[in-house]
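Lab notebook, page 48
Experiment: co-folding of the full assembly
Goal: obtain a model of how the components sit together before planning crosslinking
Operator: M.T.
Materials (sequences as entered):
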Amino acid sequence: MKSIRARLTLSLGVLFFFSWCFGGLAVYLTLRSEMTAEFDRALRASTEALAGLSEQSQGAFDFDPAPEVMSRFERRDRPEYFQIWAANGTTLVRSPSLRQADLPRLAGTLSAPHLWNLILPDGLRGRAIGLRFPPKQDEDTPPAGLVHEVTLVMASHREELGNRLGLIKSVLLLAGAGTAVATVLVVTLVVRRGLWPLSQLAERATTIDASSLGERFASKKMPDEVSQISRRLNDLMARLEGSFTREKRFSGDVAHELRTPIAELRTLAEVALRWPDDVAATRKVLQDALEIALQMESLVAGLLTLARCEAGLLAVHPEAIPIEELIREILHSLAREIEAKRLAVTLHVPESTCWLTDRVALRSMVTNLLANAVQHSPSGSAIQLHIESGVPAGRLRISNATKELAQEDLPQLFERFWRKDGARSSNANCGLGLALTRAYAQALGMTFRAELTDDSEITFELSGAQTCEAREAHQTFLAPNE
Amino acid sequence: MRLLLVEDSKRLQTSLQRGLRKSGYAVDVTGDGEEGRWLSESNNYDVIILDLMLPRLDGLSLLRQLRASHRATHVLILTARDTVEDRVSGLQAGADDYLIKPFAFEELLARVQALCRRSYQRKNPRIVIGDLQIDTAARRVTSKGRNIELTPREFMLLEYLVLRRGEVLSRSEIEAHIYPDSAELMSNAVDSAVCTLRRKIDSDRPGARIRTRRGMGYVFESTSE
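Observation: model returned without errors.
Model output:
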């Protein structure tokens, strides 16, 4: 059974049913015990009254009841019964209602009489009490001889008691059945009302598809339990919406990055073939075709490297790299662009800084970061490059002014093909540089992050690089044990 | 026929401009959305070829603004965006056609020609006026079965005059329609082009099909049909 509503209804129904059964049984047994005790007390009082009428005078037994006492034993409808035996078992007296019949001769003491159920001589159910007692002595006649105990058994109909108990039983059963039905109805209703917000939630969920991920579940006016689910679902929706948006943008970007150069190549070739007479134009076509091929080669290489990094297949060959030398080489390759934009590049590198990492990956990362800084810095601005070395790890920070970026761009900065320029007009890069840098950093066990300060300065930080000093310190630490 | 190409890829700009001009169209080119909007609102183009991802103003916004200003110029969207959503939103924004990159130049040309025909409510690419037959798709002209060799610009002039036959077209109107904005023209460029065209199409018959209306311009006589 998978329905919460059915499970709750059944569980609560069963719980109420058994609670009612136990409660009803306890009430019935208590009432029966009390009523039987009450009946027994009345029977005992009557028996003790009868015993009080017995006398012993000069060895003879005397029983002289008043007529109003005897009327109970003489009536025709449901009379009471008694019988008195001498110690030797001879019947001394029996009630007129017994005629010649005998009652069972069972007895306890006066203080603890014996009580039991029996079938009365008229065939109906009854209850009897038996006790042994010495009849009192006649006060006028002094005792002459041995005083004998007699046995008195008195029986009374218990049909009325049985009927009353039966009525109580019926009332309890009927009330139990009614309560069970009412319980099922009330529980069903309560459970349905209680689960209504969940049904609402499910109904809302069925209306949401990929085109409506911007919608949210209502969490106000909902019970706390459902409100929590709504909030979690809304968080999930927000994440899904973000993923869908990124995926959609990625597909569009891939389409643009791949289709546009192919379209350029195809149109160049078709137009050149259609009008082949213009030699200068044909030469330009060939130059453009070469540029497009190189651009696509770079794109494919970038994508393959990213795929290798993400699959953990990038071969890392750590070696000691003098970091300042590497950075100066890269800056030298960018000298023309730096000069064209009149950029002031400041390098803060501690002397003899050396990192222990993969040369190709590190060169690619630093080249990407510096090329980005050069490309996006406003003309005449400054680029700051700080290296922190030492134990346990090295850190590289590249800062430059930017007018293009805003805080909301930062989460997308490292995504493949992301460009601030929605038109993607520039052929200078394809938007893979920062994604590649992050992938390389992860493969090398480094951390790569970006921060944008209020005065429009973007800083990229590569941290966690193993330094040569750290390795030496580690080896020195190990040396005494070797 | 005068076209506007709004495309931010320099290489596509160059090759498309060359191909379209060689095919007999006057082509204005820009790689910027804002400039594209300004050009499209300032000139009467027969067709605008429009990329969607443009700097400053994207293609869809440009198109919506164009339609909002009640410009009925035919627009062909030329883009790398290939999803059904993109195509639907492009056409719903007011585009007349949608072509996805990469594309065949032949196909682009055929679509541009079809849109040009629609500009003049024609479905048949062949125009027959008496002895003169003009195939706007094959860019060929015959008179009494004789093939007439025309340069792309002469063909453009003839096509424009024929499509507006019976109407007097001013020199500036003709100039704006068959020469791109960037062309440096002599003051008598239109007169000399009309003169050359007359010589080629009327050499085998008495009287001129293209008449001069003094002080007003030129008219292709509809009665000559």
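Interpretation: The first helix of chain A runs from residue 4 to 52.
Next step: discuss with group before ordering constructs.
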